[in-house]
Amino acid sequence: MSPQELTEQIFKKQSFLCVGLDVDIDRIPTYLLSEDDPIFEFNRAIIDATHKFCVAYKPNIAFYEANGVEGWQALEKTINYLHHEYPEIYTIADAKRGDIGNTSRMYAKTFLQDLGFDSVTVAPYMGKDSVEPFLEFDNRQAILLALTSNEGAFDFQTQQIDGEELYKKVLKTSKTWKNSENLMYVVGATKAEFLKEIREIIPENFLLVPGVGAQGGKLEDVCKYGMTKNVGLLVNSSRKIIYASESSNFAEIAGAKAEVLQQQMAEELRKL
């Protein structure tokens, strides 16, 4: 999916919500554990209840890898379900990969070709030859970690090098890479005050913004400093939605939580 098609979906649905499918087998309703594939059944219920209110889903790959072959099978079934039932939805493999070129090429093939995700999150620490293989696919994107929402982000990302923060160097350098038009960036909602300067460097690229909700980020701050005329934002919420309830109607409650966020986003879009 191209950024233009994603933007069309955002305005159509009046939402830039991304739902994180971070499925912890220990937190899903216990009655699902008797199913042949409890992870997929949980995902399917969440997707069916929330798809009207979001434009993207983001499975965190670690939660599937932790369950071995069965986890990978659940991931494949989930992405195939999305492709078949809701092809208008944008999909993100939250894998945070990045390695030497030939290895990154295999990671890119896995997520962008074999599984057919629209995008994959990538770590930039090893530089351009670790990222460029992810940028070779038409209508596919690499989402580069820029300024993250975790506590340890300040260990490296905001450190000054020659008078400039490291994350700014990452942003500026990445713009020089081959096929850089296929880049999006991760910027945490808890770092909303940094968005104004980030937008001066990358004024049009989409930003994937985690940290709204459970991590304390505020939607209105993200929109104030990060939204463009074409929106340019995907705001992720995971635990606040998918673990809103452990009861048998967990999906219905998740849908209600997603709708609340969608309504807040519609209000922000009306300000454009």
UniProtKB/TrEMBL annotation:
Pathway: Pyrimidine metabolism; UMP biosynthesis via de novo pathway; UMP from orotate: step 2/2. Its EC number is 4.1.1.23. It comes from the Bacteria. Residues 16-254 form the Orotidine 5'-phosphate decarboxylase domain. Keywords: Decarboxylase, Lyase, Pyrimidine biosynthesis. It catalyses: orotidine 5'-phosphate + H(+) = UMP + CO2. Gene3D superfamilies: Aldolase class I. One of its GO terms (molecular function) is orotidine-5'-phosphate decarboxylase activity. One of its GO terms (biological process) is 'de novo' pyrimidine nucleobase biosynthetic process. Belongs to the OMP decarboxylase family. Type 2 subfamily. This is Orotidine-5'-phosphate decarboxylase. It comes from Salegentibacter agarivorans.
